[in-house]
Structure formats: structure tokens, C-alpha cells
Amino acid sequence: MLKKIVLLSVFALSACGWHFKNNEVLPEELRTLTFESADPHSDMARILRNQLQLNDVKLVSKQEGISKVRLVGASSGSKVVSVFKQAREAEKLLTLNVQAIVDVPKKGAYPLEVSVHRTFFDDSRAALAKSAEKEMIMKDMYEQAARQLIIKMAGLHKELNQSK
């Protein structure tokens, strides 16, 4: 009996088009933004812009009284974490650090910083395949960093309400 009720409720909810609203997470001041970046065509800027739009953030051109998010920089690096018997690099730790500033008019600027880490098995005998794999991993890291920035922007609710 319980299975039938659960099954019926799942079918009813999926049939009516019910879904969570993502834009409810962000504060009202951050639902319409101006996006700035030193390099607007970089991978990080492009992916962050796309993630903002996926979260129902309306991006507008520079206007007075509109909040802005400024991508300050993205830096990546790698460290060797293990080696083969022949003293060649085996595994690397890839790191991506992203800094951004959310500037809300009459409330202040809020710096945001996220770091993403991934391990990468680096076999020098398959250099071409590994470079393509590394590019895919870096793209995934950019997407994760953009999602983390949006989560941190959603966490600004408390700070924005205190400064009213």
C-alpha cells in the first residue's frame, strides 16, 4: 500500500512539471548582475557566466545601482605527489584557485575565493592522450569552481541582510 502511495505521488509530481526554483537560493540583490572580467573570453569567465545564467541570474550591461560580480583571477598549478620506480612523475595534484568580488551598491564589496583540487595520473608514454585528459579535468575544475562561487554568493544572505 505504501509503495502505491509513493509511486502515485512521484508520478503526480513529475507529471505536473513541479520543480525547485534555483533563483530562490540567491539574495534578491544578486539575481540581476553585471559581470566583469579582465579576460572575458577565458575559460573561467565563460564557464562562470554560463553557470550564473543556469542559476537564473540575469546578466545585464553596466548600469548604476546594479550589483556586479568581478572575476579577479584564476590560477592553476600542479605538484608531484607520487613517482614511478624510475623516478619519473606518476601522479600530480592539480590545483585551481579562483578569486572574485561581489560588489553590492550601498552595501559593500564581498571578496570570494575558492580552491579546487584533483589528482591526475601522468604517464609520459601516452602524452597526447594525457594532455586531452588534463584539459577535460581542468574544464571540470572550472565548472566546479564556478558552482562553488555561486554557493558562496548564496551564503551572502546574512551579510546583505545585516547591512540594511
Automatic annotation (TrEMBL):
GO terms for biological process: Gram-negative-bacterium-type cell outer membrane assembly; lipopolysaccharide transport. One of its GO terms (molecular function) is lipopolysaccharide binding. GO terms for cellular component: cell outer membrane; transporter complex. It holds the Pfam family LptE. InterPro entries: LPS_assembly_LptE (IPR007485). It is found in: Cell outer membrane. It comes from the Bacteria. Its main location: membrane. It is a lipid-anchor. Keywords: Cell outer membrane, Lipoprotein, Membrane, Palmitate, Signal. Together with LptD, is involved in the assembly of lipopolysaccharide (LPS) at the surface of the outer membrane. Required for the proper assembly of LptD. Binds LPS and may serve as the LPS recognition site at the outer membrane. Belongs to the LptE lipoprotein family. Component of the lipopolysaccharide transport and assembly complex. Interacts with LptD. This is LPS-assembly lipoprotein LptE. It comes from Actinobacillus porcitonsillarum.
